[in-house]
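User: Structure tokens for this complex, please. No commentary.
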Amino acid sequence: MREVKAERITEAVKRLCIEANSYLSCDVKSCIQKSCEEEPWPQAKEILERIIENYNISDETGAPVCQDTGVACVFVKLGQEVHVDGDLNEAIHEGVRQGYTEGYLRKSVVRDPLDRVNTGDNTPAMIYFDIVPGDTLEITVAPKGFGSENMSRIAMLRPSDGLEGVKSFVIRAVEEAGPNPCPPIVVGVGVGGTFDKAALLAKKALLRPLDQRHPEPFWANLEKELLEEINKLGIGPQGFGGKTTALAVNIEKFPTHIAGLPVAVNINCHVTRHQTEVL
Amino acid sequence: MPINVKAPLSREEARALRAGDSCLISGVIYTARDAAHKRLCELAAKGEKLPLDVENSIIYFVGPTPAKPGQAIGSAGPTTAYRMDAYSPTLISLGQTGMIGKGKRGPEVIQAMKEHGAVYFGAIGGCGALLSRCIKKAEVIAYDDLGAEAIRRLEVEDFPVIVIIDSEGNNLYETGKKNYLASLEG
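Assistant:
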């Protein structure tokens, strides 16, 4: 058994919240850069240049890239040889509390979906645990903005809908979202599992670096094909027209029931944020 | 060349703007999001005085991050505007002439814009760090309890926007996409 103190977890989560919101990761930046170089529509290119200017300002000053510093989605891979000294859940919430308060990040969480009173410190975090072999604890903080979250969709397709059904559902979700989720977007897709599992797969798909395709060639090709199709829609950066509607399509899949074909589409904006630390 | 727009914005000036125009806004604008809009419309329904001067106003749909020491405001990009669709027609009928946001608007808003002469500007979503540089002064004037959603009076200089929907109902989301796709066929 390896002991990890709850305070260390709080410290890590705090730092990850601040860094994720202030600095875009290299894969996202180079993907935006490449899209800008390849964008044929002048107005669209101009928007992409502004987006690059914006994350450069954040790199220099540490100012949050976007004012929607999101709800803190925290993914924990907990080694089964690890013993946490203290309350693990509370340690994470406390990290979010400190990160959002001391880091001058926006508090965007309400305590009840209907009475809508702000909790004032961006807690609670949305926490997901995976128990894995080993003696390390890996924490990923992915702040998620709701302009794009609100445009996400899920469908329980029939097995007979097959590959074509999956493709058309994903493309329709992007088309209907149009300018709302701040394109260029990143499209996370979850296929299979159950109703809830598909949604979680879609969210986890957004954590994968944008330059990394699915390890299985069939799914990697589907990701490329969907990206090409989406970038023929003409929505463009901010929806003002152009090629660059999406930066990447990331798919995660899982076995499912003989009667079902769940498909979830979790859309993220160009400010796709995640930072990881292994304790 | 971008068009210089002064805020407050008269109906006449609002009517002169066209979808696709690049503009730089300077002057005084107000911030409001969902929760503040709800309160404003509840006051209006009771016939009470609003905490901001709606006549000729431009309202920016934004909830900024907190200002760090020495800053006027934190990051401050636009939020998705359709959530304000339930409230905007009321405020437009009371004299509001401009909205700054991002994303689609409903027919009821466009109808009110045509009827009264108002314009919907888009700022670049996800560029909060860049846009905050054009905000020189920010002051909470109402609903402090709402935190990021409080109503603020902003003094802006050359704040960059594009007209998405004009007072005739022309819509850049439709024409921009159409023109780009047509350019591929040529």
